[in-house]
Protein backbone atom coordinates (compact mmCIF):
# COMPACT_ATOMS: atom_id res chain seq x y z
CA UNK A 1 0.00 0.00 0.00
CA UNK A 2 1.35 3.40 -1.01
CA UNK A 3 0.17 5.65 1.81
CA UNK A 4 0.87 9.15 0.49
CA UNK A 5 -1.11 9.01 -2.80
CA UNK A 6 -4.04 7.30 -1.05
CA UNK A 7 -4.06 9.97 1.67
CA UNK A 8 -4.02 12.71 -0.97
CA UNK A 9 -6.92 11.03 -2.77
CA UNK A 10 -9.08 10.76 0.37
CA UNK A 11 -8.25 14.31 1.45
CA UNK A 12 -9.07 15.73 -1.97
CA UNK A 13 -12.46 14.01 -1.81
CA UNK A 14 -13.11 15.36 1.69
CA UNK A 15 -12.04 18.90 0.83
CA UNK A 16 -14.17 18.93 -2.33
CA UNK A 17 -17.18 17.22 -0.75
CA UNK A 18 -16.85 14.49 -3.36
CA UNK A 19 -17.54 10.76 -3.43
CA UNK A 20 -15.99 8.13 -5.64
CA UNK A 21 -15.29 4.42 -5.97
CA UNK A 22 -13.39 2.24 -3.47
CA UNK A 23 -9.66 2.90 -3.19
CA UNK A 24 -7.44 0.99 -5.59
CA UNK A 25 -4.76 -0.97 -3.71
CA UNK A 26 -6.09 0.48 -0.46
CA UNK A 27 -5.63 -0.74 3.10
CA UNK A 28 -6.37 -4.38 3.80
CA UNK A 29 -5.65 -4.57 7.53
CA UNK A 30 -6.66 -2.44 10.51
CA UNK A 31 -3.04 -1.41 11.00
CA UNK A 32 -2.89 -0.18 7.40
CA UNK A 33 -6.21 1.62 7.83
CA UNK A 34 -4.94 3.39 10.95
CA UNK A 35 -1.69 4.37 9.20
CA UNK A 36 -3.62 5.80 6.27
CA UNK A 37 -5.97 7.67 8.61
CA UNK A 38 -2.97 9.27 10.32
CA UNK A 39 -1.55 10.25 6.93
CA UNK A 40 -4.92 11.83 6.07
CA UNK A 41 -4.80 13.89 9.29
CA UNK A 42 -1.39 15.22 8.24
CA UNK A 43 -2.71 15.96 4.75
CA UNK A 44 -5.79 17.77 6.09
CA UNK A 45 -3.59 19.82 8.45
CA UNK A 46 -1.52 20.93 5.45
CA UNK A 47 -4.79 22.11 3.86
CA UNK A 48 -5.61 24.22 6.93
CA UNK A 49 -7.91 21.82 8.75
CA UNK A 50 -7.01 21.62 12.44
CA UNK A 51 -7.91 18.45 14.29
CA UNK A 52 -9.94 19.25 17.42
CA UNK A 53 -10.63 15.73 18.67
CA UNK A 54 -12.02 12.33 17.84
CA UNK A 55 -15.07 10.19 17.34
CA UNK A 56 -14.79 6.74 18.89
CA UNK A 57 -17.00 3.82 19.77
CA UNK A 58 -16.65 0.47 21.48
CA UNK A 59 -15.68 -1.69 18.50
CA UNK A 60 -16.71 -5.18 17.52
CA UNK A 61 -13.96 -7.74 18.02
CA UNK A 62 -12.61 -7.43 14.47
CA UNK A 63 -12.76 -3.62 14.10
CA UNK A 64 -11.33 -0.39 15.51
CA UNK A 65 -13.77 2.53 15.51
CA UNK A 66 -12.29 6.02 15.71
CA UNK A 67 -11.73 8.99 13.46
CA UNK A 68 -10.62 12.64 13.54
CA UNK A 69 -12.83 15.70 13.99
CA UNK A 70 -11.82 18.96 12.28
CA UNK A 71 -12.42 22.61 13.17
CA UNK A 72 -13.57 23.60 9.65
CA UNK A 73 -16.28 20.94 9.76
CA UNK A 74 -17.51 21.87 13.25
CA UNK A 75 -20.47 24.21 13.72
CA UNK A 76 -21.21 25.95 17.01
CA UNK A 77 -22.80 29.20 18.09
CA UNK A 78 -25.57 30.99 19.90
CA UNK A 79 -29.15 30.59 18.71
CA UNK A 80 -29.87 28.57 15.58
CA UNK A 81 -26.73 26.89 14.22
CA UNK A 82 -26.47 26.74 10.42
CA UNK A 83 -24.45 23.65 9.49
CA UNK A 84 -23.18 23.30 5.92
CA UNK A 85 -23.12 19.66 4.86
CA UNK A 86 -22.87 17.26 1.93
CA UNK A 87 -26.47 15.97 1.69
CA UNK A 88 -27.27 12.30 1.19
CA UNK A 89 -30.18 11.83 -1.22
CA UNK A 90 -31.32 15.37 -0.45
CA UNK A 91 -31.42 14.94 3.32
CA UNK A 92 -29.06 15.19 6.29
CA UNK A 93 -28.00 12.02 8.11
CA UNK A 94 -27.22 12.71 11.76
CA UNK A 95 -26.51 11.02 15.07
CA UNK A 96 -27.52 12.60 18.42
CA UNK A 97 -24.64 12.36 20.86
CA UNK A 98 -22.82 13.92 23.79
CA UNK A 99 -19.35 15.40 23.37
CA UNK A 100 -16.75 15.48 26.13
CA UNK A 101 -13.82 17.90 26.40
CA UNK A 102 -10.69 16.86 28.27
CA UNK A 103 -9.29 19.19 30.94
CA UNK A 104 -6.13 17.15 31.49
CA UNK A 105 -3.92 14.98 29.30
CA UNK A 106 -4.24 11.21 29.07
CA UNK A 107 -0.71 10.48 27.83
CA UNK A 108 0.86 7.17 26.95
CA UNK A 109 2.08 5.34 30.06
CA UNK A 110 3.02 1.89 31.22
CA UNK A 111 -0.32 1.01 32.85
CA UNK A 112 -3.91 1.19 31.52
CA UNK A 113 -6.20 4.09 32.36
CA UNK A 114 -9.09 3.24 34.67
CA UNK A 115 -12.60 4.40 33.91
CA UNK A 116 -12.48 6.65 36.98
CA UNK A 117 -9.24 8.29 35.80
CA UNK A 118 -10.71 8.91 32.36
CA UNK A 119 -13.88 10.41 33.81
CA UNK A 120 -11.80 12.65 36.11
CA UNK A 121 -9.91 13.97 33.06
CA UNK A 122 -13.13 15.34 31.50
CA UNK A 123 -13.79 19.02 32.04
CA UNK A 124 -17.14 19.57 30.37
CA UNK A 125 -19.88 18.03 28.25
CA UNK A 126 -22.12 19.42 25.51
CA UNK A 127 -25.00 18.27 23.38
CA UNK A 128 -23.72 17.27 19.95
CA UNK A 129 -24.75 16.00 16.54
CA UNK A 130 -22.42 13.94 14.40
CA UNK A 131 -22.87 14.59 10.68
CA UNK A 132 -22.72 11.30 8.80
CA UNK A 133 -21.15 10.84 5.38
CA UNK A 134 -18.30 9.10 3.62
CA UNK A 135 -16.06 9.76 0.66
CA UNK A 136 -17.34 6.62 -1.06
CA UNK A 137 -20.30 6.34 -3.44
CA UNK A 138 -21.19 2.89 -2.07
CA UNK A 139 -19.64 2.23 1.37
CA UNK A 140 -20.95 -1.34 1.31
CA UNK A 141 -18.38 -2.09 -1.38
CA UNK A 142 -15.49 -0.94 0.83
CA UNK A 143 -13.49 -3.09 3.23
CA UNK A 144 -13.57 -1.79 6.80
CA UNK A 145 -9.88 -0.71 6.88
CA UNK A 146 -10.72 1.78 4.11
CA UNK A 147 -13.65 3.08 6.14
CA UNK A 148 -11.31 3.44 9.14
CA UNK A 149 -8.87 5.40 7.00
CA UNK A 150 -11.72 7.67 5.89
CA UNK A 151 -12.79 8.47 9.46
CA UNK A 152 -15.62 5.93 9.91
CA UNK A 153 -18.44 7.85 8.19
CA UNK A 154 -17.83 11.25 9.77
CA UNK A 155 -18.31 14.43 7.76
CA UNK A 156 -18.59 16.94 10.57
CA UNK A 157 -20.03 17.96 13.90
CA UNK A 158 -22.55 20.31 15.48
CA UNK A 159 -21.84 21.29 19.08
CA UNK A 160 -24.75 22.47 21.18
CA UNK A 161 -25.00 23.97 24.66
CA UNK A 162 -23.01 22.88 27.64
CA UNK A 163 -24.82 20.39 29.89
CA UNK A 164 -24.37 19.25 33.47
CA UNK A 165 -21.25 17.12 33.51
CA UNK A 166 -22.33 14.70 36.25
CA UNK A 167 -25.63 14.05 34.46
CA UNK A 168 -23.83 13.54 31.15
CA UNK A 169 -21.37 11.06 32.65
CA UNK A 170 -24.29 9.02 34.00
CA UNK A 171 -26.47 9.28 30.87
CA UNK A 172 -27.08 5.65 29.90
CA UNK A 173 -30.39 6.78 28.42
CA UNK A 174 -31.74 10.03 26.99
CA UNK A 175 -35.27 10.99 26.06
CA UNK A 176 -34.83 12.80 22.74
CA UNK A 177 -37.33 14.99 20.91
CA UNK A 178 -36.87 16.66 17.52
CA UNK A 179 -39.22 19.39 16.34
CA UNK A 180 -39.49 20.68 12.78
CA UNK A 181 -38.40 17.55 10.90
CA UNK A 182 -41.95 16.26 10.40
CA UNK A 183 -45.56 17.26 11.04
CA UNK A 184 -45.36 15.79 14.52
CA UNK A 185 -42.63 15.94 17.16
CA UNK A 186 -40.27 12.99 16.76
CA UNK A 187 -39.51 11.16 20.01
CA UNK A 188 -36.84 8.59 20.74
CA UNK A 189 -36.08 6.54 23.83
CA UNK A 190 -32.37 7.05 23.44
CA UNK A 191 -29.91 4.53 24.83
CA UNK A 192 -26.14 4.69 24.59
CA UNK A 193 -24.82 1.57 22.82
CA UNK A 194 -22.01 1.13 25.36
CA UNK A 195 -24.01 1.73 28.54
CA UNK A 196 -22.17 4.68 30.05
CA UNK A 197 -21.15 7.23 27.39
CA UNK A 198 -17.53 7.51 28.53
CA UNK A 199 -16.76 3.79 28.33
CA UNK A 200 -15.71 4.15 24.66
CA UNK A 201 -13.45 7.05 25.66
CA UNK A 202 -11.71 4.81 28.20
CA UNK A 203 -11.33 2.11 25.54
CA UNK A 204 -9.87 4.64 23.11
CA UNK A 205 -7.45 6.11 25.64
CA UNK A 206 -6.15 2.61 26.38
CA UNK A 207 -6.05 1.68 22.69
CA UNK A 208 -3.86 4.71 22.04
CA UNK A 209 -1.83 3.87 25.14
CA UNK A 210 -0.92 0.45 23.72
CA UNK A 211 0.26 2.21 20.55
CA UNK A 212 2.45 4.71 22.41
CA UNK A 213 0.04 7.60 21.88
CA UNK A 214 -2.28 9.64 24.10
CA UNK A 215 -4.98 12.28 24.29
CA UNK A 216 -4.44 15.93 25.14
CA UNK A 217 -6.30 18.48 27.24
CA UNK A 218 -8.73 20.43 25.09
CA UNK A 219 -9.51 17.55 22.75
CA UNK A 220 -13.21 16.86 22.18
CA UNK A 221 -14.54 13.31 21.89
CA UNK A 222 -17.89 11.90 20.80
CA UNK A 223 -18.57 8.31 21.81
CA UNK A 224 -21.68 7.00 20.06
CA UNK A 225 -25.23 7.78 19.05
CA UNK A 226 -28.23 7.51 21.35
CA UNK A 227 -30.69 6.88 18.52
CA UNK A 228 -28.86 5.41 15.53
CA UNK A 229 -28.65 7.39 12.29
CA UNK A 230 -31.57 9.80 11.83
CA UNK A 231 -32.62 11.43 8.57
CA UNK A 232 -33.82 15.03 8.72
CA UNK A 233 -34.67 17.58 6.01
CA UNK A 234 -32.58 20.45 4.72
CA UNK A 235 -33.50 24.15 4.96
CA UNK A 236 -35.72 23.78 8.03
CA UNK A 237 -35.40 25.19 11.51
CA UNK A 238 -35.01 22.17 13.77
CA UNK A 239 -34.90 21.88 17.53
CA UNK A 240 -33.63 18.91 19.50
CA UNK A 241 -34.14 18.42 23.23
CA UNK A 242 -32.49 16.00 25.63
CA UNK A 243 -34.96 15.75 28.51
CA UNK A 244 -33.39 17.04 31.71
CA UNK A 245 -30.17 18.15 30.00
CA UNK A 246 -30.81 20.85 27.40
CA UNK A 247 -31.93 21.72 23.88
CA UNK A 248 -30.39 23.14 20.73
CA UNK A 249 -31.64 24.76 17.49
CA UNK A 250 -30.06 24.10 14.11
CA UNK A 251 -30.63 23.83 10.36
CA UNK A 252 -28.78 22.12 7.53
CA UNK A 253 -27.80 23.63 4.19
CA UNK A 254 -25.75 22.13 1.35
CA UNK A 255 -22.12 23.11 1.11
CA UNK A 256 -21.39 25.42 -1.83
CA UNK A 257 -19.10 22.79 -3.34
CA UNK A 258 -21.49 19.93 -2.51
UniProtKB/TrEMBL annotation:
Transmembrane segments: none annotated. GO terms for cellular component: cytoplasm. GO terms for molecular function: 2-oxopent-4-enoate hydratase activity. PANTHER family: 2-KETO-4-PENTENOATE HYDRATASE, ACID HYDRATASE. This is Hydratase/decarboxylase family protein.
Amino acid sequence: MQVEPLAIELCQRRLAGAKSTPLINGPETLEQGMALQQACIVCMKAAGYRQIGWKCAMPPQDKWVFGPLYDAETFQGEGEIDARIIPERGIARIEPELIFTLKTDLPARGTPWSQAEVDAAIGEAHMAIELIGTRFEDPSQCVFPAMLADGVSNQGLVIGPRVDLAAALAARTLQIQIEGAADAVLSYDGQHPSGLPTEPLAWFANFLNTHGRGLQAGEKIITGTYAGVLEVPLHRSLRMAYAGLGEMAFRFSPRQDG
